[in-house]
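--- STAGE predict ---
source: upstream dedup step, 1 unique chain passed
mode: sequence only
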Amino acid sequence: MLQTLWECETEPLSIANTEMQSLENALAFIEEAVYKHSGEALSDLQKLILRAAWEGNQKTYSQIAAEYNYSDKYLQQVVGPKLWQLISNALGQKVTKSNLKVILTQQLTAQDDSSEPAATTTEISSAKTAIDLEYPTDSVPLDSPFYVIRTPHEPNCYASAIKPGALIRIKAPRQMGKTSLMKRILAYAKENGIQAVTLNFQQAEKQTINHLNSLLRWLCANISRQLHIIPKLDDYWDEDIGSKMSCTLYMEGHLLEATETPIILALEEVSELFDYPAVAQEFLTMLRTWHEYTKAEPNWRKLRLLMIQSTENYVALPINQSPFNVGLEINLSPFTPEQVQALIKVHGLHVSTEELNHLMRSLGGHPYLVRLLLYHWAQQPDSLEQLLETAYTDAGIYRDHLHRYLWTLQQYPKLSDGFVEVLNSTTPVTIEQMQAFKLNSMGLVNLRGNSVALTCDLYRQYFGAQILSS
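--- STAGE serialize ---
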C-alpha cells in the first residue's frame, strides 16, 4: 500500500516546478550518498519521511504513522533515528528533520559549483566567511553543520524525552555544549507531539529568585504563558499551605489537567539558584517530589523534566531529597580527536596527524575553544601556527575565556592555592578534595583517581605566566 501511495502522491499546486525538481534532486543525492557510505538502500517509508521533512509541512511522526497505518513508536524509536543517523554518517555532519533542507541545499549547491572554474583561495575564504562560518557564541543553531553529535548522548536523551515522567539532567562546565544539546532534545520532543517549555533562571531578577514564594509564582506564570493557558495563580495560592504545595497544586490542577498533550519542562542554568542555598534546597526538593509523582499519578505522567546545570556551582542536599541522583544523567565530555577532525573537515580545513595531536594537547578537546580556533583559522587558512602561539596571551583569541577563570581564582585564594599545586606539577597531583572537585567542575582540571591534572596546555601556559610569576 505504501508503494502505491508513494507513486500516486501528487505535489500541491502551489509548489513551483523548480521546487519539485529540487526535492527530487535532494532525494537522489541522499540515496546515492547513503548507499555509497553504508551499502543500504532507503526504504519507501524512509523516503516518505524525507519528503515530509523537505516540504516543511511540520508533520509529526505520530501524524505520519496514523496516515499510513504504522506504529507510532516504530517511527519514533526505530525508523526515524536510524534514518537521520544513516544520513548524518553519509554526509559527515549532523542531519535532522528540522535542518535537512538547509544542509541538503548547501550540499547540492557545492556539488553544482564543483563543475565551475576553480575559485581562488581569496574567493573561497571570502565566501566561507560570508556564508558558512558561525562565530561560536551561545548555542549552536539547530540547522548548523558545525554541531558535533555526542554519541551516545543524543540517542539516549531522545529515547528518554518521549517517555512519561522522564527526568534528564545535563551537567558540564560553561561553554561545553549543554544548551545546544538541550535545544535538540526539545526539537525532537516537539517532532513527537510533546509541548516544550523553557525557563532560564538567568532571566529571572535577583529579587525574584532569592525568595521561594516569588520564584515559584514566576515559574508558574511563565509556564502558563508558554502553554497559552490563562494564569490563575491566585486561585491556587494559599499561604496557609505554603508556596511549594500551592505551586504543586497549580501545576497538577491547572496546567497538567488543562492539556492532554505531554509537556517537557526545560530548566536552564539551575545553578543560578545556588547563590541562595535555602531557596535552592526547597525548590530542588519540590522537583524531586514532582518526579516521584510521575511514577503513579496519571496527570503527572504527562510531565518530563530536563535540567541544565553548570557544574561550577553546587548545593548540598540529602540524597533522598535531591533530583540530582535520579533520572538520566548526562555529563558532557570534551571532543574526541575524531570529533575534532570531523569539525575541521566541516570548516574546509585539513590537518596532519601531528597537527591534530598538537591541537588536542593545546585545547584538550574543549568544544568552545576548538570551535573558536577553527572559526579564526578558516578565515585565514595559513594562520594556525600564529593562533596557537598567541592563544595563551592576553592578545590571543581566548583572552575573555581566560580572564573569567583568572578572576574566579583571584576571588577565592584557597582555590587558587590548590590550582598552583597543579600548575607546579607535570604529573597528576593530589590536592584537598573540595579544591579538586571545584577545579574539575570549572573545567580546569581532570580527575585521575584521587589525583588531578590540567585539562590542557593552554591553561598551563596562561595561568603559569599569570599566577606563578606574580
